[in-house]
Design goal:
With about 450 residues, this protein is an alpha/beta fold. Helices cover about 35% and strands about 15% of the residues. The chain has helices at about 25-35, 55-70, 80-90, 105-115, 135-140, 160-170, 220-230, 255-290, 315-320, 325-330, 355-360, 390-395, 410-425, 425-430, 445-455, and strands at about 70-75, 95-100, 120, 125, 130, 145-150, 170-175, 185, 190, 195-200, 215, 295, 310-315, 345, 400. Helix 4 links the parallel strand 2 (about 95-100) and strand 3. Helix 1 runs antiparallel to helix 8 (about 255-290). The longest helix has about 30 residues, at about 255-290. The chain is globular and about 75 Å long. The two termini are about 35 Å apart. About 45% of the residues are buried. The mean pLDDT is about 95. The chain binds pyridoxal-5'-phosphate. Pyridoxal-5'-phosphate binds near residues 78, 105, 150, 176 and 179.
Length: about 450
Amino acid sequence: MSKLAILGGVPVRTTDFPNRVSMGSEEKSAALRVLDSDVLSGFVGAAGKFFNGGKEVIDFENLWASTYGFKNAISVNSWTTGLQVAVGAVGIEPGDEVICPPYTMSASATAVLFYGGIPIFADLDPSRYTLDPLAVERCITPRTKAIMVVHLFGYPADMDAIMAIAKKHGLKVVEDAAQAPGVFYKGRPVGTIGDVGGFSLNFHKHIHTGEGGLIVTNSDEIALRCRLIRNHGENATEAYGVGDISNTIGSNYRFTELQAAIAIEQFKKLKGFLAHRTQLGQYLSTRLSSIHGLTVQNMESGSTHSYYMYPIRFDEAVIGISRNLFLRAVTAELPKPKYWDTTPLAEGYVKPLYLNPVYQKKIAIGKKGFPFNFNPGVTYEYPKGLCPVTEKLYEKELLVTPLVREGMNTDDIKDFADAIEKVIGNVQELKESNENDSHGKIFDPLKAIEDHVKK
Ligand SMILES: *Cc1c(COP(=O)(O)O)cnc(C)c1O
């Protein structure tokens, strides 16, 4: 075995990883077509022909909906706002409890707070990184109204079990499929297995329009409520004959014609992107699955993965060194991606959400503690240790790589797998070295993005 780069040896690779270039001539001509038309948004904030947007917006929504057999698609200006719209449309009210995973982008849970709902965090299944149905069941109270499911990293949550719980207790299910566009769960596309779901079109997602999102639902009633909230619904409830006007005060969450035209071209590339990532992901799984102490995600039949991130479970007891030292040794073998905001391998994902000040201080809307103090006689606590499986993933067990993506090819992934194998083959040498094996600082992807932007 050649000497590890962290100990002064020659790295596995020094040439940069290729960039992801997502915009092509198709997006450029689509954008120019809209600019030439001079209509950059087709929306009017009152009931009528343009309440649901202009031609490009409608075409984009219809294209995505018809491709996957979704009955309704509603574009929005981000998936963060899309989540808020979805939570409002399913009727979450002040004091309603919504069960959420703690390991996700913060918006999955804060969307609940926007309507005065209270996020209740249930622990994860450590093999899927999504809600553990048994943990969900333990969180149910007479106040529970919905479950927020997140298909984290692009692999679907255990929807059969979650839908069974929802049915048994009469709960709504919102699917945050931001990281899982075009993903299937046992043969069914994610997004409409629950009542309503959707996808993000932000810059970091598989396909993007800078910012943007798409809500999908097979319920016409929920779709109408989403469209109302998207576009000043208070002006339109009478015209659309809406009896229950609760939660229909709208905002301006509209997608522009320019974004929609670009989105149409991006969407046409989605299947190709997913096929490419699947090929790279499968190759990496084959390479890593033979390594004792690293666990790759097990895929059930009929389900697909979008590899927004490629997760690896790390077992310190088996490998013999801390996750942090392992990460530093692998990183030393590879170039730092020049074009993106990350390292080739990262520790954990976000901090478990309930450890953020909003839950620790229970200050969300105003200073008086609303909505956490809304239900008389009920106190909400978010102590450390609330979701032990998640905390262990965050602190010790989870590694993710963002390398499975467009622009990369099998040779690039081969270098990554070679770097991991090289470190595994030299663990003894690493243990005997003077390298500090204390637990290092945990990688914070949000901070990394900030640092990247500052540069
Ligand atoms: C990206 C993301 C969001 C937010 O989407 P935006 O379009 O950036 O607002 C929400 N949930 C998850 C899981 C995400 O990855």
